[in-house]
Amino acid sequence: MPGKRIMVVGAGVSGLGAIKICLEEGLEPICFEESNDIGGLWRYEVSLNIVYKSVISNTSKEMMAYSDYPFPDHFPNYLHNSKIMEYLHMYVKHFHLLKHIRFLSKVCSVRKKKESYVFDGIMVCSGLFTNPFMPLQKFPGIMRFKGQYIHSWEYKSPEKFQGKKIIVIGIGNSAIDLAIELSHVAAQVFLSTRSGAWIWNWVWDSGMPMDTVLFTRFNSLVKKIFPEFLIHRWAENKLNVRFNHDIYGLLPQHRFLSHQASFGDDLPNYIITGRVRMKPNVTKFTETSAIFEDSTEEDVDVIIFATGYTCSFPFLENNSTVLDIQRSMYKFVFPPELEKPTLAFIGILQPVGATIPTSELQSQWAARVFKGLNKLPSVKTCFLMKVSRKVQYVDYMDEIASEIAVKPNLFSLFLWDPKLALELFLGPCTSYQYRLQGPGKWAGAREAILTQRERIIKPLRTRTLICAQAPCCVPLWLKSICVALLLFVLTFIIIKG
């Protein structure tokens, strides 16, 4: 009996994972991709306004890998977009996904198309970064400005900005990246921010990738035990040790974990050398200059709005109950007011962590809902459970994994495979953990988990030293304490149960 037909919109990282999951579940996916290649926002071409030439991932390779296909061990930890594209092509070839993708196929409507298809379910994987947001109305005088103004979406490379005075508006990852890159060719770069930001570092303790050190089950447990203000204070003090955010003009109005992370290991180096100058919010523009909230004025030739994107799905009905993502989407995947759960949004949330693993788990959940193997709660229950908070990576992954019975059982593993259990608890919460059991179980998951530190270290150790020792992210004394803590928690659960 043929499986249900599923439409997948977009062949980016979320769409490719969705195709693979559908095939695993015995469904028949057809992916419609508007362009002539896979990759979505990671695909660089001069003719496409998708990604700038120098962009590098903000999540490390072990954290962003598909759950049954680790990155090659020689790949760098933080990847240039060309390396991510190389990995995606390897993934597509390995799992024979290409034949399920229809390129140069724009979805016009889910009801009425130029070419009609009937599907049992739809996975929308077109992502968040499709409609640039330029709040021009908030900047009086912008229409009188005689220079050039663009959105960061239009930026490709720095050459044509040689000798210009440039102001970048925003403090997200794109704003920081562009300010640093442009400072090499510009006469001066100003980075204007209304709110400030805590600047996270790619390189964390012992030189390890930040997310592999912070996004662990142990740290997730710590956050549940200790008051939030202590977590904020610890993190903010740690970031201020490298450079004082107040002195550097970056001190934000929000606490550490309450906003999306901004990465910029190099930013303080460029501020201290004057190549990037921090400025407050712009109050208005003149024909040739910007006037700021502190009443200072600077001559500028180019304005770059790194002001983010709005979420839009023009091929869907203009239905506010379907598109009201932030307030009503059940676990950021299902619109709760549809008569039947036949529409799922994949990868539309921004967790404090990697997109590929969250999208992959969402796809697995959606596929099983489409098949009728998993049921959604009532509309009333969905609304009561709606999420309006910032999503923490490990918590969200476990939440979705619990829906499909793939969350690893630490208690059982601690009894039968303590080595693996310890790595699950103390090591990075990589996607391989969700292939140890349940639907989609992968025989290589255990090996992938136990060798993940080797894949982190290999591309760093290109000059081998005699008697060199592998860096250990977790001291032995801390491991002992963690084992004792884990035993205590498990004992408490058993007694209480």
TrEMBL record:
Belongs to the FMO family. It catalyses: hypotaurine + NADH + O2 + H(+) = taurine + NAD(+) + H2O; trimethylamine + NADPH + O2 = trimethylamine N-oxide + NADP(+) + H2O; hypotaurine + NADPH + O2 + H(+) = taurine + NADP(+) + H2O; N,N-dimethylaniline + NADPH + O2 + H(+) = N,N-dimethylaniline N-oxide + NADP(+) + H2O. GO terms for cellular component: endoplasmic reticulum membrane. It comes from Bos indicus x Bos taurus. This is Flavin-containing monooxygenase. It is found in: Endoplasmic reticulum membrane. Its cofactor is FAD. InterPro entries: FAD/NAD-bd_sf, Flavin_mOase, Flavin_mOase-like, Flavin_mOase_1, FMO-like. Broad spectrum monooxygenase that catalyzes the oxygenation of a wide variety of nitrogen- and sulfur-containing compounds including xenobiotics. Catalyzes the S-oxygenation of hypotaurine to produce taurine, an organic osmolyte involved in cell volume regulation as well as a variety of cytoprotective and developmental processes. PANTHER family: DIMETHYLANILINE MONOOXYGENASE (PTHR23023). One of its GO terms (molecular function) is hypotaurine monooxygenase activity. It holds the Pfam family FMO-like. Its EC number is 1.-.-.-. The chain crosses the membrane at residues 476-495. It is a single-pass membrane protein. Keywords: Endoplasmic reticulum, FAD, Flavoprotein, Membrane, Monooxygenase, NADP, Oxidoreductase, Transmembrane, Transmembrane helix. The lineage of its organism: Eukaryota, Metazoa, Chordata, Craniata, Vertebrata. SUPFAM superfamilies: FAD/NAD(P)-binding domain.
